[in-house]
Amino acid sequence: MATIFTKIIEGEIPCYKVAEDERHIAFLDINPVAPGHTLVVPKHEVSYLFDLDDEEYVALELFAKKVAKGLRKAMPCKRIGETVIGLEVPHAHIHLIPITTEADMDFRHKQQLPGEEMASICARIKEAIEAE
Ligand code: AMP
């Protein structure tokens, strides 16, 4: 069965998309640990990030690098933290999180932001990535 991320990639489920190329997509995490928390996902559905072949893995990280640069400009933060969990959705992905302190990466503190705020954050990040 297709993962929820494949359904997003195929447009069956909506998302706050900040970037896309032929092989990757980046969209806001629906339950962000910090505003701007973004997921970077290969369109090729592979369950576990470290099962991607070397070429796919490097391409995903290069795409994530571009997203992270825009994210850092768009969101008030010191840096962009990157983490891999993968316990909830069996479709390889990287979490990019705007951080100022270590506590901003705490996955015990997931939030839900109003739709309007998510849309406005999404537009800001998208614009910054496109300007990269
Ligand atoms: P994990 O697989 O443990 O790395 O966690 C999956 C992440 O995907 C969680 O942070 C969820 O909040 C996020 N997530 C799950 N469903 C969606 C969705 N439909 N849109 C955006 N983010 C999602």
Assign the CATH architecture.
2-Layer Sandwich
In the CATH hierarchy, the third-tier topology is known as HIT family, subunit A
Low-confidence stretches: none
CATH superfamily: HIT-like
Number of strands: 5
The molecules bound to the chains, other than polymers, are: adenosine monophosphate
CA radius of gyration: 14 Å
List strands and helices in order, with pairings.
Elements: H1 4-9, E1 17-20, E2 24-28, E3 38-42, H2 54-74, E4 79-83, E5 94-99, H3 115-130
Antiparallel strand pairs: 1-2, 2-3, 3-5, 4-5
The chain binds adenosine monophosphate.
The site of adenosine monophosphate (AMP) has 12 residues, from loops.
Task: Give a written overview of the molecule.
The protein has a single domain, classed as HIT family, subunit A (2-Layer Sandwich), CATH 3.30.428. The protein is built from 3 helices and 5 strands, in the order H-E-E-E-H-E-E-H. A 5-stranded antiparallel sheet has the order 1-2-3-5-4. Helix 2 crosses helix 3. 33% of the residues are buried. The chain binds adenosine monophosphate. Adenosine monophosphate (AMP) binds next to loops. The site of adenosine monophosphate (AMP) has 12 residues, from loops.
In short:
With 132 residues, the protein is an alpha+beta fold.
List the defining traits of the structure above.
about 130 residues; five-stranded antiparallel β-sheet; 3 helices; binds adenosine monophosphate; about 20% strand; HIT family, subunit A; alpha+beta; about 35% helix
